Amino acid sequence: MIKGGNRLEGSVSVSGAKNSALKLMAAAILGDNKSILQGVPKIRDVFTMIEVLNRLGIKAEFKKEDQLVIDPSGNISCEASYDLISQMRASIVVLGPLLAKLGEARVAMPGGCNIGSRKIDLHLRGFELLGAQIDMGQGYIQAKADILVGATVTLAFPSVGATENLMMAAVKAKGITVIENAAREPEIIDLANFLNSMGADIEGAGTSSIKVQGVAALKGIKYQVIPDRIEAGTFLIAGAISRGDIIVKNACPEHLEMVLGKLRDSGFDIKEQDTGVRIIADKRAKAVDIATLPYPGFPTDLQAQMMALLSLADGTSVITENIFENRFVFVSEINKMGSNIRTQGQHAVIEGAERIKGACVRCPDLRAGAGLILAGLAAKGTTEVEEIGHVERGYENFEQKLSRLGADIQRVPEEMTEVAQSASECVGRSEKKG
Ligand code: EPU
Q1: DSSP class of residue 15?
Q2: b/e burial code for range 267-297 (CB count within 10 A of at least 16 → b)
Q3: Ligand 1, atom 37, residue with closest C-alpha
Q4: What is the pLDDT of residues 11-21, one digit of tens each?
Q5: DSSP label of 88
Q6: How many angstroms separate the Cα of 294 from the Cα of each of 51, 125, 159, 208, 225?
Q7: Closest Cα partner for 267 from 305, 312, 332?
Q8: Is 242 close to ligand 1, i.e. is its CB under 6 Å away?
Q9: Contact assessment for residue 24 and residue 17, using Cβ atoms and an 8 Å cutoff
Q10: Which residues lie below 8 Å from residue 140, measured CB to CB, with a gap of 6+?
Q11: Is 113 a catalytic residue?
Q12: The CATH homologous superfamily of the domain defined by 18-224
């Protein structure tokens, strides 16, 4: 429940990157002994990945604060079951390390999700080129290889997950693997740095050509996860939409170049500091056009938050979503708050409104949920955001962090929400009617 209108001020610290931590957790499977990951956010997706590892027979637990200890030295099973994969699609990244370590992996078919169909054909084709035999049937993918042999894999699209899965499969393969048209996200560099510190030999991460020379063994290590660039971007947009002045500590400006550029184009003062990034916002945003693209393009994971900001901009903006086909489901929710956004295919036209008003809205997915919360910060009156479980998947202590910056936001038990109350009124009315 958010009462809009407060100006956010002060500083906020960004947690470790979800989309890096999840892959480092999978990569730790490749070590001969335990790894310690520092800066792992305590979010729902991380707890799901802990459960995935535990069920594979790998001990994974938080020791102190944000240190996650993963010990892959016991007997490991090669099978990840459907109930976990269906909770979190990212658990598909255990396929590569299991195949490399055990020569076999059986993982439930992840299927689509709220934001799109999310195929994994590029992962599977890459494994095949490394010599794995892939069998699909009864909702499972089975990958088997007596020995993986390095090969050149050219990805038809720079998929983040396929690049990561292939890098992890290739680190112990015989000979050299080259991944062409690889994804270039900072999380790919983080994964390569982690694997190299474990003893792998990877060159070129962060460019579109990654070379992996197979090695015999990897050892567990201690490693610090990079800061979450999407969380950082979300707070910067929160500063902008609330016309605030906030410092986002630990934010890496070099991971956010396109986002900072678009915020500057919308008229905001952005200062890159040694400790993070500051945004000073005292006026309405100017309209800007945005196209989501693989890194270093504008991240799809900040598209909804930016759309919330532009729904209050002076002028008309166009957002083109090039990565996931269902990310505009957000539009019908934010339009309930008085935004004026219409979509056509992968384009959204946003006529900036002078104000939006609080409403009862529902999170369709993680990033859209964050976008709705940001809209609530700027809306007149009270906004009730339902199904915030999606937001808890990826943001650590989101409402506490916003509240410390001055937002009027609180978590409300479900039975006290407007939806629940109007439902009970309906029941009451129908009971009276008999
Ligand atoms: N694709 C294929 N075939 C494949 C793989 C991908 O067609 O084999 C398509 C997908 O359907 C999609 C596009 O390629 O349309 C991009 O998919 P990609 O593989 O790059 O994304 P991902 O690895 O599934 C990660 C993040 C997403 C983020 C995207 C893009 C994790 C756990 N997830 O997903 O994060 O949006 O990269 O940057 O790292 C989020 O955090 O909210 C989130 C969805």
Answers
A1: -
A2: bbebeeeeebbbbebeebbebbebebbbbee
A3: 160
A4: 999 999 999 99
A5: -
A6: 30, 20, 8, 11, 21
A7: 312
A8: no
A9: no
A10: 106, 107, 108, 109
A11: yes
A12: Enolpyruvate transferase domain (3.65.10.10)
Q: Cite the residue boundaries of each domain of the chain with CATH code 3.65.10.10.
A: 2-14+227-433, 18-224
Judge if the beta carbon of residue 367 lies within 6 A of ligand 1: yes
**CA-wise closest residue to 419 among 378, 388, 380, 375:** 388
What is the whole-number distance in angstroms between the Cα of residue 160 and the centre of ligand 1?
6
The CATH architecture that domain 2-14+227-433 belongs to is Alpha-beta prism (3.65)
Structure-block tokens of residue 252: 């890496």
In short, whether 383's Cβ falls inside 6 Å of ligand 1 is no
112 ligand 1 Cβ < 6 A: no
If phi over 0 gives left and psi between -120 and 50 gives alpha, with beta otherwise, what is residue 411? Answer: beta
Distance 331 CA to ligand 1 centre (A): 21
pLDDT 10s digits, 52-72 = 999 999 999 999 877 999 999
- Identify the pLDDT of residue 65: 79
Closest C-alpha to 145, from 131, 155, 157: 131
